[in-house]
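Design job #97: recover the sequence.
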C-alpha cells in the first residue's frame, strides 16, 4: 500500500498516473493496479477485482507493476513484523475518531434532520394556520438550492468527476461507495433533484390554483418534506 502523503509514495503514484494514463477524473483513492489495469474507487475495485484475479491466475499470475521506485520501496518493507509491534485490538482507533470533524458534522446534520421531521409533524397538525409570507417565500428558495446541490451530486456520480465538498471530510469516499446509489441503480442525487423539483412544482401549483385545489396542493408540502427527510 502506497502512502501518497509521503514523498516516495506520491512519486510512485504519479508514475502510475502517467504509465497507466489515468485521467484526472479518476485520480482518487483507493486506487489499485493489478496487471495492466488500474481500478479506482471502493465500488469499481470490488466489482472488477475478482474477475481480474481469475484471468491473471489463468495466465500464470502477475508481477508487481513496472513502476520506477516501486522495487526499492518493496525491498525496504519487512517481510514480517515483530510481535511487539503488532497493534492490539484495544489500541484500535474507534471509527468515529478516524475523521472526527467530518463525523461530528454528520451527527449535527442527523440531529437537524430529526428536528426537521419533528417540525414537519407540528406543521401537519396546524394545517389550518396559513404560513407567514416570509416562510412561504423561503420554500421555493430552499427547493432551488436543494436541487442545485442534488444536481451537482448527480453530475459527480454519473461522470466520475472528483467531488469538492470543502475542507471537512473525504466526500469522494461517499460518492464511490454503495451509498451513492439507491437500489444500486439510481444516483441518490437524481432522487434529490426529483424530490426538490416536486416540492417546487407543488408550491407553484398551490399558488396558481384557486380555492380547494390550492389548499389540497398546499397539504402535500409537509408530506413531501417528511418523506424527503426520511
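Job complete. Output follows.
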Amino acid at each position: 500500500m502506497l502512502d501518497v502523503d509521503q514523498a516516495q509514495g506520491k512519486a510512485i503514484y504519479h508514475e502510475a498516473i502517467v504509465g497507466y494514463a489515468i485521467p484526472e477524473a479518476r485520480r482518487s483513492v483507493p486506487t489499485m493496479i493489478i496487471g495492466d489495469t488500474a481500478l479506482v474507487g471502493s465500488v469499481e475495485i470490488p466489482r472488477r477485482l475478482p474477475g481480474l484475479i481469475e484471468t491473471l491466475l489463468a495466465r500464470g499470475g502477475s508481477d508487481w507493476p513496472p513502476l520506477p521506485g516501486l522495487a526499492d520501496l518493496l525491498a525496504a518493507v519487512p517481510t514480517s513484523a515483530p510481535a511487539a509491534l503488532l497493534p492490539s485490538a484495544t489500541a484500535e482507533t474507534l471509527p468515529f475518531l478516524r475523521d472526527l470533524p467530518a463525523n461530528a458534522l454528520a451527527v449535527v446534520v442527523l440531529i437537524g434532520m430529526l428536528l426537521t421531521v419533528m417540525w414537519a409533524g407540528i406543521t401537519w397538525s396546524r394545517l389550518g394556520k396559513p404560513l407567514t409570507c416570509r416562510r412561504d417565500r423561503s420554500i421555493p428558495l430552499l427547493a432551488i438550492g436543494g436541487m442545485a446541490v442534488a444536481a451537482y451530486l448527480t453530475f459527480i456520480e454519473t461522470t466520475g468527476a472528483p467531488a469538492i465538498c470543502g475542507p471537512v471530510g473525504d466526500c469522494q469516499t461517499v460518492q464511490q461507495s454503495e451509498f451513492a446509489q439507491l437500489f444500486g441503480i439510481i444516483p441518490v442525487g437524481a432522487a434529490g433533484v426529483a424530490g426538490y423539483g416536486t416540492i417546487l412544482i407543488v408550491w407553484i401549483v398551490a399558488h396558481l390554483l384557486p380555492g380547494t385545489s390550492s389548499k389540497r396542493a398546499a397539504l402535500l408540502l409537509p408530506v413531501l418534506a417528511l418523506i424527503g427527510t426520511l
